[in-house]
Each structure stands twice: as structure tokens, then as C-alpha cells.
Amino acid sequence: MINELDDLDGIDWTSMGHAYGPGGDIPGWLKGMADPDPDVRRESFAGFYSAVHHQGDIYPSTVAGLPFLLGLTDDPATPDRAAVAALLLSIGREAADRDDDCIRFAPDGTESTAPADAMALLRARADAFVRYAADSDPGVRHAGIGGVGLFLDDADRAVAILRERLPAESGTEERLLVIRTMASLALRLPAARPAATAWLDILADDPAADPGIRLGALVHRARCAPQDIAADTVPTAIDLLGRLAPPPDTPDTQGCAATTCACAAPAPREHAPADEAQAAPAPREDAPADEAQAAPAPREDAPADKPPAQDVPPQIAAAFEDLDRHGRVHAPTTSLLRTFHTVLDDRVAERTALLAAQLGSPDPATRYDAIAMAKDLIGSWRGDHTALVALVAQCLLPRDPYTTAAAAECLRSLGPVAEPARESLAGCVAGHRDMHGPDVWASPRPQLRRAHQETVMTLARLGDPRALPSLLTALDGGTDAWRAVQVAGGLGPAAAGELVPRLTRLLDAVDFAKERTGMSAGALVSALAALGDPAAVPALARAVAAAVRHEQWRPAASALEALASFGTAAASALDVVRPLADAQDVDLRAAATAALWALARDPADAVPRLVALLDGHRLREAAEVLALVGPPAGAAAPRLREMLTASYDWTRIHAAAALWEIGGEAEAGALVPALLAAWAGNGATSNHVLACLSRMGPAAAPALPRVEEELALPRRTGRFGSIAHDEEVQHLCRTLRERLAG
What we know:
This protein is mostly helical. It has 37 helices and two strands. The protein has a two-stranded antiparallel sheet.
């Protein structure tokens, strides 16, 4: 009861602490959760989550707070009982995930068994969750149902309680939660598994049951035993999913008109179970026919699209907006289908068929949420994803900017795999410009503006010149020009005549006296380097000088790297570059030395400087330039051979690549084993290793078995989990295999 809060002061909270130090503020947060003032309650919950349950962590102070949270939930006078119950369940879930009887450490370095202690306390109070499961407050009831699955150790009683809850619940969301919890119970308690799975089988096979309930039972039955998934499981799920969607010629019951919607897009409750995603609101009955099938979207003036705060770089503001969008769920089946994809795992063909049904659904909310799932599948597994990419491309609808933006963003993340969507992207860009005019990039309607910008940027990443007019609009008008700069280099030399003058003007306008600027100098110099027009050289030289003058070493180094990409065509900048090759800052000195070689091609000057850099943290850059120098860099060979025995994988790789270019066949005997060992020790090195092996040609023959092994892998590899890097790995492997086989 709330009266129990009087006992808070009898606990030494400070000695237990939390994520940010002493826990003297915990009693205030617990009391604040019962305060009549909603603002006080909001701040109290936020403080407790942030510090005492920080990122899901469980501390001794978290455990000490559980009896008080239970007391608050038990008391009908508590204003936000559902929020307290959700907090209890969140702590229990995290404790269950971490309750492995091993010793953990608190922030102060002391040993902690807090997760196990939390689980022991909550299991001892499992009857409280049995009561909550029948509470009149839906939020409390949700937490109670989840708690029965997590904390009640009497298998027969838990199964019986959950079976009773299904007919007692009226909403799809609540009933799916019961089904999910039954499966979780079966996975937690082997004694509950026979009865639980038999019940799920009955529900899944009941032709009279609601299709959503049957789908939930089917998915969670598969979750209980993934190894037993039958051949007809996915086709049955697809059939049930089809029965859930509204017929194509009836008004949409899930989405709302993207261009006229007066409601914010729904999101799952912050700490809701995975199957508790809320359905999107229905459209207005008077919605235009061409907008009725649009995905649910925020208002055009929704907070997520408000102007960024002053002095916050637009890139940072946009990143936070992206985080907000990525947390949204629009269809009640979304979390269920995500669970199904997780269970299906490596059954790529079946998952693709399921996604085809999702992306082809008449329900716009289902289609929208399927886009992210398609991205996950394509990003994780190799194979021919042409058909799936084409289905995502079909979501590029000029009259549905909310869904269009998500589809374009997804396609851009796919890199070269997005090629089958090129014409759809170009058509969408043209459609936007036809309907809204050539300045649609700067539209005052945030959703439309974002949709057009995302589509243009994705088209530009594919190197398509049809993106150029909108990029010029951005660069000339200034609205979100930083987005255009990010992708301008993708259009290559053919667009340089239009882009380089605009980009160099922007670069000249960068104020290097400021630590942060609205327009990133790094993005500008990268774009100019990618465009490859020597007309950019004077502006790049001026940028180097300005950055050095204000001791902005990283921007100066970036501009030097861009200058180096032009080779001797940038020789006019030598007067700026040469003095920096003796700079105190090692990063600046390394970049200047690399540029010095590229612009002057004088081995006598460059090689001694590069050899000296091999003993510092810029050895990678030095080794790469020595490889470009080739045989005239023979003086570096002894040091490079020593580096082949280094413990760091990357050091060995860069040394091997340089030695091959310097010594050729004479060095091959030591290089292939070093490269293969580095690859085996660190899979992220694959792109660099394969690039070197490809240059070695027949000398790389001992690597063929490892190449074949790589090509047989079904999951993507490569650096950073990047699709583009993995596609490069596959291409290099195939090319090398053909070369060695021939």
C-alpha cells in the first residue's frame, strides 16, 4: 500500500547506489510515482528508469525498490497503476534474461547478484501477478498476464490461468499477449510444455477462430519448437494473414490518409510486450480515394518534424528523428510477424514468401511495417533478392509520402542490391516533381519533403543522373543542402560540371573557426573527391590552409586526402601540402605525406617519411601509400616484413599488401599465410584480404579453399555488416576463383 512508502526512509539507499551514483534520490522517485501531479509522476518514472533501471540494468537498489512498486500496484488509489505494473514487468523480464546464477558487477565494481535476487523476490510474490492478470485496468492486466508467464512456477496453475484469460479478453492485442505468454511459459517451464503446445495446436487449427488468433497460435507454436516447423506452416500463415487484411475495394481500416491525417502515428507502449503493438487509427470516412490506402502517418506538424534546436547540427537533429520513427509500429500483427521471422531464421525462401505477402497486403500498415523486415532479411542473408527489392520498390507511391520515405530509406541501405528499384525510384522522383513542382525538395510539408529527399538520395547513390535536378535545387536554395552533399559524389564525373562549382562555394563558406558547422567540411571534400574534377583543387587547397590556420586537424587531413585523390592533377597545391608533411600532429603529417607522394611522385622524398610513419598509429595510411609507390619503396621492405608478425590483424594485412606491390613474387611465400591468418582471426578484414589476394593472381592459389568456404556461407559477412561490403566480398571471391581455376 502507499502507506508502505513511509518505510522508504528506513533503507540506506545511498549505500546501494544506481547507474549515476548514490541512490539518495530513489525514495523521492518512488514517492513521486504516487503524486497527484502528473508532471511529478512523469519525472519520477523517468528518473527511476534512467538511473535505477538504466538500460535494463538491475542493481541492488532496483531489488530494494520492488516491494514498494508492488505496494503501489496493489493500491487502487495509485494514479498510474498500469505504469508501475509495467515497470515491475520490465524489471522482471530483464532479471529473467540475466538470472544465470553467475556473479555480476555493480557500477562501483562490487559483486552483485541483483538479477537473481530480483527474480527470487518476484517469484515469491507471483500471486500478486495472478491478481493483476484479472484486474479491471487493461494496463495492469497486461503486466499481470506477462508476470504469470515469468514468475509463477506452478506449471499447471499457470497454464490454467492463461487458458482462462483468452476468452475473457476481447481485444486482439490482449489475446495475442495471452498466446505469447503461454509460449513463453512453455519455454521457461518444461512441465508446462505439453499442455501449452497442445492448446496452441488446437487454437491454430480451429477454423472457427479469429484469423489473428490462429496466426498468433501458429507462430508461437513454431516458436516453442522451431525444429518441428512443418512444410505447410508458412503457407498457412500467409493464408491467415490474407484473411486479416481488408479487401482491396473496401475502405482501409488500419491506415489513415498520409497527406491529410490529423493523428500522430501510433507507437507501442514504451515497455509493452512484443505482441502489444497498437493498431493504427482508421481513416476519416471522407478521405480521398487515392489517399485511403496510405500508411498511418504523423500530422504534417507533428513534433518529430519540428525545426531542430538552435546550434544543433542538422545531421544530429535528423538522426534523432530517425530514431523516433524507427520505434513506431503500425499494424497489430507486426510484432507477431517479427517473431515469426526470428523463428524461421535461415529459411530464407519461406521468409521471402511471407514478406511477399506482407508487402503485397491490402493493409497499408502491414505493408509499411514489412519494409523494415525486408531490410533485415536482405541485410542478413545472401542470395538473389531481386523479387523482394521489387516489392519494396512498389511502396514508392508519390501519393503516400510516409511509406515512400521508409521504402526509399530501406533501398538506400541495400547499396548495390537496390539496383532493380532504379526505375521505380526515378519514376517516384519524377512524380513528385510533376505533382508538386521543381522545388519539392524544399516543400513546406515535412512528410512530402522527406519522401522526396529520401528518394532522390537513394537514386543518387545508384549514380543515376535523374537525381541531379533536385540536388541542384537543394544546393542552390540551401534547404537541407547537407543531405544533397552526402550523395552528390555518387553521380560521378558526368555531373561534375554542375556540382563542383556549387560544392566549392559551400566549402569556401565553411567557417573553420567554429568547432561545429551546419555544413560538414568532411562531406564536401569527400563529394568533390568522388566527382573527380580537378577544378575542385584550388578550393580544396584553400580548405586545407583555412583548417590548419584554425588548428582543425581532422578537417585539414580530410581535405588533404581529397587532394591526393587527384594525383598529379593537383600539383598546383604542392606549396600548401609540402610544409604539412613535417607537421607536429601525426594525423595531419600522415595525410600530408600521402598527398605529397600523390602530387609530386618523388620516391626519394616520400619513402623515408612513410617509413618513419610505420612506427606510429598511422601505419595503415603509410603502408597503403608505400604500396602505391611500389618497387621504388624497397627501403621499407625490412620494416614491413617485421610487421607481418604483429599481433594486430590489420597491421599484418596492410604490411602484406604493401610488400606484394614492392617485392612481388619474391614475397608471396610469407604473404598468403599472413593474409589467411588475419582473415581467420578477424572476419571484418575480408574485403582488404581479398583485394590483396586478387592483385596477387596465381600466387594466391593456396587461398582457394578459403575462398570456396566463404562463397558457401549463407549469411552476409564483410566489414561492419554492410551489404555493400558483403557484395564486394562475394564478387572478389568469384573473380579470384575464376582466375585461379583458369
